[in-house]
Amino acid sequence: SRVPVAIVGAGPAGLMLSHLLARVGIESINIDIRSRKEIEETHRAGILEQGSVDMLLDGVSDRVLRDGHRHDGIELGFGGEGHRINFRELVGASAYLYPQTDVFIDLADARERDGGDVRFSVTDVSVDDLLGSPVMRFTDADGVAHEVRADYLVGADGSRSICRQAVPEAERTQYFHEYPFAWFGILAEAPPSSPELIYSRSDDGFALISQRTETIQRMYFQCDPKANVDDYSDDRIWDELSKRVEPNGFTLKTGPVVQKTVLPFRSFVQTPMRYGNMLLAGDAAHTVPPTGAKGLNLALADVKVLAEELEIAIKGKDLSALDRYTERALDRVWKAQHFSYWMTSMLHTHENATVFDNRRQLGELAMVTGSEHGRRYLAEAYTGWPIARKD
Ligand code: DHB
Q: Where is the GCM domain (predicted)?
């Protein structure tokens, strides 16, 4: 069969892209090796920029207005107290607590409602002929093999992207940064400990107190990348968390830990985000460390730009549109790379840090929170930048 756009991946990036394309009358197909249930049950970040919320409200679902929570600021804990960054006051914007699994559910429901072609649980995925008319091969959940020809193929297939790997080495550049720590993430049955998120730096490391619902909370603490979740009892987890937030004046409401995972931590970009008639979007092209919750927001911003440029390429037969994609998307990608790296380096402690390193870090935090310019710089980045313009 033949379709204008074939999309490998049916996570938030892939599904938002097919949604945006459908709205301008361009047909597409999404495939994913995971089942819908598996994606729904994968816990990811929980914070949306205003721009990401607006994309959901534009024809996907308005559930975010009912089930999401507007957060007008965050608390930065360090040096014995909390320092509030008031987003509303500083930049007239907010962030929204609305977990990625809910974004996914809304998008999957919207594609179904609008008659989108989305195939979950496929196997044997491969892509070919990327310099000409790309082909996407897969076996569907019923065991039937398919070959789809497309004008354009999009790799929105996450951090272990097969599409990214299909780009010859000589045709791409990869940028990496590794960190000497990871995050231990938990879901706990407890009431919220605070009305807003707490990013807390202590000499024992970093902790983030986030939320999910009135009865389920999401929290993270800095850990060794080789940490094993089985070595952490509930008591040890609450001990690690309180040790990092209590010195800054916060108290945790505790309860049974119902889920625990160690999250990988790295920065990665592959450029260009195009190879022939294949385009990469979201985690397939770049990864950020979780501090600041930019990953999902960046993926949605990518496909917003990509949908605009694909529409021009397909309807206007203007191929330079696809070259513009990398340039426009990377503008935001590198800002988010810097922001995520900066938030990480400002709040995490290093095992072999000197006394100087620790005092300097506190100096940086004092400089940012003690100045309106500093607070506004952080608030602007956290709530999200405008999308780079076409011209
Ligand atoms: C969450 C994760 C983040 O990385 C962050 O910066 C804020 C919130 C979360 O999962 O709730």
A: 320-391
